[in-house]
Structure formats: C-alpha cells, structure tokens
Design brief:
The strands form 3 sheets. This protein has a 5-stranded mixed sheet with strand order 7-9-8-10-11. It has a 4-stranded antiparallel sheet with strand order 1-2-3-4, with helices on both faces. About 40% of the residues lie in helices and about 20% in strands. The protein is built from 7 helices and 11 strands. The longest helix has about 35 residues.
C-alpha cells in the first residue's frame, strides 16, 4: 500500500511538472511571436493569483501575463490583505548584491569606532544628496563604510573622483571634499578602478547616487537619514 501511494504521488508530481513545463513553453512561444520586441524571457513563474504568471526579462524587469500569453501587464502586484507590494519585493530581491562579491579593491574605506558593522555606498562628488548623506554617516559609530566613487553627473564628477582616488589619504580627501568643499591636491595615478565601478554599477542597475548597500545584500537608493541607516544596519547585523 505504501509503495503504491509513493508511486502515485511521484506520478502526480511528474505530471504536474510536465504540465507546468508545457504551460511555460506556451507562454514563451506566444509572447515571442506576438511581441518580438520583448527581450528574451529569463524566467516564467506562478504568482499568488491563479492563472497569472510572472515574466522576468533583462534579469530583473518584471511583467505579468496569462496562461496563454494573450495579455501582458506592466505594473505593481499588490497584496491588499497584507498591504505588500509583491512586485517591489521581488525586484528588491533580484537587485540584491552579495556583499562578499563587492570589488573592495576599487573602493576606499572610512572606519568609525570599532568598524564592526559593514556597509557600502556608491557616491558622486557632485551629488548634493551624497553630500547630505555624508553628514548623516558622520554621526554613525562602529561602522566600516566602503566608498565606491561613482561619477555619473558629468565630466566635473569624473575629475573630482580622479583627484580623490589619486590622493594619498583617499578617505580624508573624500570627507574634506564632501563636508568642507575642500578640493584635493592634484595628483596622477591609475584611475581604472573608477571605470570598473561604473561598469559594476551599470551591470547591477545602480541608477543613481547615493546608493547604499548592506551586508544582507539589500540596497537603499537615495539620501536617507542616520536613523534609517542605523535601523538597516541593526537589521543586517543580527
């Protein structure tokens, strides 16, 4: 009896998997034929709504469709009972960056207190919000901040980033520039790390500055205050 039950359960699982595979194939085929401009589909997965499927393209762009690929929906899927934006949560998960994979050789560090807590920031020296957040970061204690120069606001940002990177004490040059408006002394060095930061950010869709990264892989775009950063650090160092 047990063997029969196990065999039946296994057969049912196989049939369900086969059906799911056929359904995914139908969605992929129909959307490719009907929307040739749609990027290649990375993944098709079920949503909590029966008959509605998530379509993932460009690694982390989310759309929704029906089982036949007749319709394509762009927008947020909201769970109104739990008051959760499921699309936003999904994208945040897809955009998470493994902290251990950060190319720290292309950053410099600012250490405060014992430096036990870890975070990183992608920042542009001409970004007003970046200057504001540096004032809040200065209020943190027991933290190591890996600063990635990310000059996305034009040639002036690139030049200031180069001066900071080529300074003997990069952390001091950065803080003097951002907090005191003191320009670093001119110097020359290999600035390939700045170009690599831009490539890394483009790959991981870091689209603005400042962007904060935390030990659990989560990211927070935009200027947030010290209290919010403290809360995020506490959540990721438990």
């Amino acid at each position: 009896m047990k063997n029969t039950l196990h065999w039946t359960t296994g057969l049912l699982a196989a049939l369900l998997a086969l059906g799911a595979g056929a359904q995914e194939a139908t969605i992929r085929k129909n959307l490719a034929e009907r929307l040739p401009q749609l990027p290649a589909i990375n993944e098709v997965s079920k949503t909590p709504i029966p008959g509605l499927f998530e379509i993932r393209v460009n690694d982390n762009d989310i759309y929704y469709t029906d089982a036949e690929g007749n319709y394509l929906i762009q927008g947020s899927l909201i769970d109104v009972r739990q008051r959760r934006n499921l699309t936003e949560e999904r994208v945040e998960k897809l955009l998470a960056i493994d902290f251990s994979s950060l190319p720290l050789k292309d950053a410099f560090t600012v250490v405060r207190g014992n430096g036990q807590r870890k975070m990183a920031i992608f920042s542009d020296p001409n970004c007003g919000y970046c200057k504001r957040i540096e004032r809040d970061l200065a209020r943190l204690d027991n933290v190591t901040i890996h600063v990635f120069l990310y000059p996305v606001l034009g040639p002036g940002s690139t030049e200031k980033s180069r001066l900071v990177w080529c300074s003997r004490d990069r952390a001091k040059a950065w803080l003097d520039l951002m907090l005191k408006e003191q320009m670093p002394t001119a110097a020359a060095c290999d600035t390939a790390p700045i170009a690599r930061n831009l490539a890394f950010g483009q790959k991981h869709k870091i689209q603005g500055t400042p962007t904060l990264l935390f030990a659990d892989g989560s990211r927070v775009p935009g200027a947030v205050d010290a209290g919010q950063i403290e809360k995020q650090l506490a959540a990721t160092t438990r």
